[in-house]
From TrEMBL:
Belongs to the UQCRB/QCR7 family. It comes from Hibiscus trionum (Flower of an hour). Gene3D superfamilies: Cytochrome b-c1 complex subunit 7. This is Cytochrome b-c1 complex subunit 7. PANTHER family: CYTOCHROME B-C1 COMPLEX SUBUNIT 7 (PTHR12022:SF0), UBIQUINOL-CYTOCHROME C REDUCTASE COMPLEX 14 KD PROTEIN (PTHR12022). GO terms for biological process: mitochondrial electron transport, ubiquinol to cytochrome c. The lineage of its organism: Eukaryota, Viridiplantae, Streptophyta, Embryophyta, Tracheophyta. Coiled coil: none annotated.
Length: 122
């Protein structure tokens, strides 16, 4: 990635990236979600594998946040203000494990081994 593009995407250097991050933070806080909750395990099998490797209580907390967000969305409501202030939308719990899974898959591919899982399209 070019240095110009990196500086454009960095919230500390670009006002547009900063505005986007602030808007996204507010939207995630309204529903009590974290950014990592938005990753879909059915879209990318690496995400599914990373979720399988995480401790059960972290995955349970993720599922609870998603259920609460769906419930609030269906009711056309938001979290109460005091709970919104307690939310930490950009505290990551998935990125380290996801990077490890992707690194293992790249290493497996470099060694010429078969992939651990393959997607089949019906």
């Amino acid at each position: 990635m070019s240095s110009f593009l990196q500086s454009l995407l960095d919230p500390k250097k670009s006002w547009l990236a900063s505005l986007h991050m602030k808007t996204l933070t507010n939207r995630l806080r309204k529903y009590g979600l974290r950014y990592d909750d938005l990753y879909d395990p059915y879209y990318d099998l690496d995400i599914k594998e990373a979720l399988n490797r995480l401790p059960r209580e972290i995955v349970d907390a993720r599922n609870q946040r998603l259920k609460r967000a769906i419930d609030l969305s269906m009711k056309h409501e938001y979290l109460p203000e005091d709970l919104q202030k307690m939310q930490t939308p950009f505290r990551s719990y998935l990125q380290d494990m996801l990077a490890l899974v992707k690194k293992e898959n790249a290493e497996r591919e470099a060694l010429g081994a078969l992939p651990l899982y393959q997607r089949t399209i019906p």
